[in-house]
Amino acid sequence: MSLRFPDDPLYQLIRDEKIKEFNQQRESVDSIDFHECDFRGLDLRGLNADGINFDGCYFRATDLRGIDFSKASLDGASLASAQISGCFFPKNINALEVYVSVEKGIRMRGR
């Protein structure tokens, strides 16, 4: 699988770590689909992840601290070496899946 780098202004805001601007602009968008996108090495603290499709995304070495992913989709995402303290994850992904993804880089599977 190859990662996507969509020509999407919202994706570009995240890539530029402009999280406050992303959160403001996303309010006018009905749905956000970032499946199979690359977010490696970014600082995404403060991101409003509600309803975003992050299926298959790479978050290697990304700072995700404090993000509430409980209403996002993360099936198949990889969190290798990501900072995840204070995160909430969707109920369909158990803690062991998150742990092994951070430690070993495997893709998380939802139940």
Describe the structure.
It is globular, with a radius of gyration of 13 Å. The chain has helices at residues 9-15, 19-26, 95-104. Helix content is 23%, strand content 0%. With 111 residues, the chain is an all-alpha fold. It contains three helices and no strands. The mean pLDDT is 95. The chain has a single domain (1-111), classed as Pectate Lyase C-like, CATH 2.160.20.
What features would you highlight for this structure?
111 residues, 23% helix, 0% strand, 3 helices, mainly alpha, Pectate Lyase C-like
Q: Percent of residues in helical segments?
A: 10-25%
Largest sheet: none
Shape: globular
Low-confidence stretches: none
β-strand amount? under 5%
**Structural class by SSE content:** mainly alpha
- Average per-residue pLDDT, rounded, comes to 95
The radius of gyration is: 13 Å
- The helix tally amounts to 3
Number of strands: 0
CATH architecture: 3 Solenoid
Oligomer: single chain
**Helix-strand topology string:** HHH
Helix and strand arrangement:
Blueprint: H1 9-15, H2 19-26, H3 95-104
Helix pairs in contact: 1-2
Sum this structure up briefly:
By secondary structure, the protein is mainly α. The protein contains three helices and no strands.
